[in-house]
């Protein structure tokens, strides 16, 4: 994992293939490692690799979208993990999407394209969670999954991705942590995200 991450310290994420490789190095490896630990400690059975990858992609790609404001405003400037192949269709510099009202429509279109890409992993990630047998391990991944999906709902069609540190409302986070026990709970929260406002505190 460390060797793979070191590769991306200097390497720009230009293509969708670069992005997928980065996700695989960072999060698929991490989730596989935590599952193997759970296998040793509580006898958890590892789901197939494709489902692990779907869960990892959902979580890490969501993080990439959500952290854009921090990445483009922090000094010294941080690395941008959005694939250039995608954002360069809209602007020459990704920073141009931040406060340029002329580009506001393009900014929203880009965010929506990014979120739509991530949503392709939801079905696989739900299959992943449904296969976790140990209740404690299930809660860890189900909460992680729901936080990711909730943040995607928050970011979709939202220009503020580029302008502030968006957060899910604290009471929503608390409900996810306290009430996510079974797959039925997961489905209830998914319906909630489809029908309720999840926008929350901004910094």
UniProtKB/TrEMBL annotation:
* Gene Ontology cellular component terms for the protein in this record: endoplasmic reticulum membrane
InterPro entries tied to this protein: Isoprenoid_synthase_dom_sf (IPR008949), Squ/phyt_synthse (IPR002060), Trans_IPPS_euk-type (IPR044844)
- What is the name listed in the Swiss-Prot or TrEMBL entry for this protein? Squalene synthase
Q: Which GO terms describe its molecular function?
A: squalene synthase [NAD(P)H] activity
According to its UniProt entry, one GO biological process term is: farnesyl diphosphate metabolic process
Q: Give the highest taxon in the source lineage.
A: Eukaryota
């Amino acid at each position: 994992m460390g060797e793979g991450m070191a590769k991306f310290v200097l390497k720009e994420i230009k293509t969708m293939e670069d992005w997928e490789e980065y996700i695989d190095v960072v999060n698929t490896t991490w989730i596989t490692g935590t599952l193997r630990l759970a296998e040793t400690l509580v006898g958890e059975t590892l789901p197939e690799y494709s489902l692990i990858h779907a869960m990892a992609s959902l979580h890490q790609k969501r993080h990439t979208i959500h952290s854009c404001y921090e990445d483009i405003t922090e000094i010294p400037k941080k690395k941008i993990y959005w694939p250039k192949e995608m954002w360069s269709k809209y602007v020459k510099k990704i920073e141009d999407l931040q406060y340029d009202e002329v580009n506001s429509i393009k900014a929203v279109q880009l965010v929506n394209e990014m979120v739509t890409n991530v949503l392709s992993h939801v079905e696989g990630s739900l299959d992943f969670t449904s296969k976790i047998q140990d209740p404690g391990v299930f809660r860890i991944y189900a909460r992680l999954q729901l936080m990711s999906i909730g943040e995607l709902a928050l970011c979709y069609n939202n220009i503020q991705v580029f302008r502030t540190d968006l957060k899910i409302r604290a009471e929503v986070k608390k409900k996810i942590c306290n009430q996510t026990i079974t797959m039925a709970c997961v489905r209830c929260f998914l319906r909630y995200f489809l029908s309720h406002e999840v926008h929350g505190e901004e910094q």
